[in-house]
């Protein structure tokens, strides 16, 4: 009897120790993630602050901030809330582990007792992230706008808390009430489009401008934006109350996909991460094609026709995402033309995403390489024929990007530069997307020594982004030369060779690799 009691006591101590170690590991994991987030935001803030050089803005710039600043900040607020509601419509923002979904949530326990602590942690994490970004924005604004640095940091912190709390609270409300995905998505897109159109027509305070007044109180000297705090707190409270009502099936599906996405990120399998992210967004191909094609027997254009038929089954959300990315690329190119060097890497990320999207047919062919090997066509020939659609779609996205760049001003010289620089940017974007879709690391890491394995891995991961970013390098250099009074044509011919050469090298690498 004594031995049985001693064994039970030891087992209880072992279980308690294991639980304590698991809790400590979870706390350390959250602390490490927070540390990386703070370090990344601080690094980006320091880099942007070094570019601003603490020079005061001109009176014309201050007038633009006064007229359009609240509208722009308000639209950013609406975009953040729209992303949160879209996440809630897809089953988020809570991510519950698959065993907890299957056993704990199915047990005869009050769901509110299980999910309220998780919802509270999610609310706190999103709120702290918003506060961190708002503080960084306040530091940057204090370098160029009038007002004390303490006031900018304080109101930026408060605005970030409001944005983060409202975004997470709205996501929990949509998820807890199980609102339909399409009405929520259309309402979010409609709100963002309405604000953008109102801002483009010069009406900054009529739509969503009152949302941005809180962040600009040190400059506007108007404290009416503080009224936004009370509705934000109400949304957070309602989100915590309604969060336990989310769908168990959606939570189990989201937990499985989230675990697989984390594993893909850990192994640097970016193609798998992209595919799983689309599955997480419940993005499915259309049953009916946008355009119907007649059956044909020609072999010469069979690959092109198959790629176009695949494009005809793209869902509308994917097309809208591609258009939005193209507009963002155009705005980044316009900022790079104006001399903002930070727009080159940011625009490179957008171009890389466009390249990954438009070259998805190559990725699908690579995933079904067994079928590709059965075709009576060499791999290199099949690969070359698949490049036609990505380049054509890239050119179409380039036209949309030019339209996005024209939103902030247009002239004849800018039109000439756009015509000369669209093709190099498209080639660089497609090159980076092709490398990402065909393999996750273009370097042979097996032959590298253990000391060089880490640097080689970082370089291999950065190569697609570097190739895509080089697409905006000619835009930046030509803009600098143009402001100096030199000719556009001569300088453009000197710089467009960089993305063209890198994109061509990526294409040659893909053709040589084939579908091995």
How does this model look, in words?
It contains 23 helices and no strands. It is mainly alpha-helical and 516 residues long. It starts with a helix and ends with a helix.
Question: Secondary-structure map with pairings?
Answer:
Layout: H1 2-52, H2 59-89, H3 98-104, H4 111-144, H5 149-176, H6 181-200, H7 209-212, H8 217-220, H9 229-242, H10 248-266, H11 270-280, H12 302-312, H13 316-337, H14 343-358, H15 360-367, H16 369-374, H17 379-385, H18 388-405, H19 412-438, H20 450-469, H21 473-483, H22 488-495, H23 497-513
Helix pairs in contact: 1-4, 2-5, 2-6, 4-5, 5-9, 10-11, 13-14, 13-18, 13-21, 14-19, 14-20, 17-23, 18-19, 19-20, 19-23, 21-22
In brief:
This protein is 76% helix and 0% strand.
**What's the pLDDT, averaged over the residues?**
76
Shape, please?
globular
Strand % is under 5%
Structural class: mainly alpha
Largest sheet, strands/sense/barrel: none
Number of H- or I-type helical stretches: 23
What Rg is obtained from the alpha carbons, in whole angstroms?
Answer: 26 Å
Number of strands: 0
Give the low-pLDDT segments: 440-445
State the order of secondary-structure elements, H for helix, E for strand. Answer: HHHHHHHHHHHHHHHHHHHHHHH
Kindly state the percentage of residues in helix: over 70%
In whole angstroms, the N-to-C terminal distance is 66 Å
